[in-house]
UniProtKB/TrEMBL annotation:
Its main location: membrane. GO terms for molecular function: chemorepellent activity; semaphorin receptor binding. This is Semaphorin-2A. GO terms for cellular component: plasma membrane. Residues 243-253 have a biased composition (Low complexity). It comes from the Eukaryota. GO terms for biological process: axon guidance; positive regulation of cell migration; semaphorin-plexin signaling pathway. The keyword Glycoprotein applies. Keywords: Glycoprotein, Membrane. Residues 104-185 form the Ig-like domain. The lineage of its organism: Eukaryota, Metazoa, Ecdysozoa, Arthropoda, Hexapoda.
Length: 263
């Protein structure tokens, strides 16, 4: 069923036989306007939402464009994960589906495995989600590291070397050879993503051949160009923000003058 809030959100809530229930998804559907009424149309496969100023139609089977991972897709009663193409689709028999969250390992084979390479001493960001879904923000996310020295162990965060981002990702500061290996991110008992981290310890050694010098020079030139491009983009955004703020200030000033004259 669905529940609207005074903040313009709509909660999709799944309830099953035996009394279990949970939040499957949260839609920011009406801006900041309170949701006044909800109506479900099974014929149109849509949810209708009303506020004081608008009426909106929301599709019930918002799968492909709503969920980008198996772990989110299978929890929606209208959706299923197509493991052959790695996409979320409206549910049909044969797709992975676990609306009651009773099969924790259902998505393990579909969890992406990514390779990350970093130089000795660099900082590395390993993302859990592109953006943590509202429905999952209260859930526990745990990272594990498969190390040659320690084996598999749970990662504990600290301010000196290992940080957790607001989106539940992992940041490793000043990586060394001991940080190489496989990293796994679990949402509850479910694996959602894993990384193979490779540390290039040779990037900090002095080149010994002319070709190695040329390669290092080329790499640094490429990095410098990326920084220049990023700096130009940042400066452009700063100028746009400055112009926007100035225009807003002028408009507010004009509004105040008009109000003053009306008084």
């Amino acid at each position: 069923f669905y529940a609207g809030t005074s903040g313009g959100e709509v909660y999709k809530i799944v309830q099953w036989a035996g009394g279990g229930s949970r939040v499957a998804d949260v839609w920011v559907a009406a801006g900041d306007e309170p949701v006044r009424a909800l109506a479900l149309s099974r014929r149109a496969h849509a949810l209708y939402l009303a506020t004081d100023n608008r009426l909106r139609q929301l599709p019930l089977r918002a799968c492909t464009h709503r969920y980008d991972s198996c772990v989110r897709c299978v929890l929606d009663p209208y959706c299923g994960w197509d493991k052959e193409v790695g996409a979320c689709r409206p549910y049909t028999p044969g797709l992975l589906h676990d609306a009651t969250n009773s099969t924790p390992s259902i998505c393990e084979a579909s969890a992406p495995l990514k390779t990350v390479r970093a130089g000795y001493g660099q900082s590395v960001h390993l993302a859990a989600f592109g953006k943590t879904p509202e429905a999952l923000k209260d859930q526990n996310v745990v990272w594990y590291h498969h190390s040659r020295e320690k084996g598999r162990y749970k990662i504990n965060y600290n301010w000196e070397r290992v940080l957790q981002t607001s989106e539940r990702g992992l940041v490793l500061l000043s990586v060394t050879d001991s940080d190489r290996g496989r990293y796994e991110c679990y949402f509850g008992p479910t694996l959602i993503v894993s990384y193979n981290l490779d540390i290039d310890i040779h990037r900090c050694t002095q080149p010994s051949k002319s070709q190695e010098y040329k390669q290092v020079y080329s790499d640094w030139c490429h990095e410098f160009e990326k920084y220049k491009s990023a700096m130009k983009a940042w400066e452009s955004r700063q100028m746009q923000c400055s112009k926007s703020n100035n225009a807003s200030s002028q408009q507010n000033s004009m509004t105040n003058e008009i109000v003053a004259s009306l008084r």
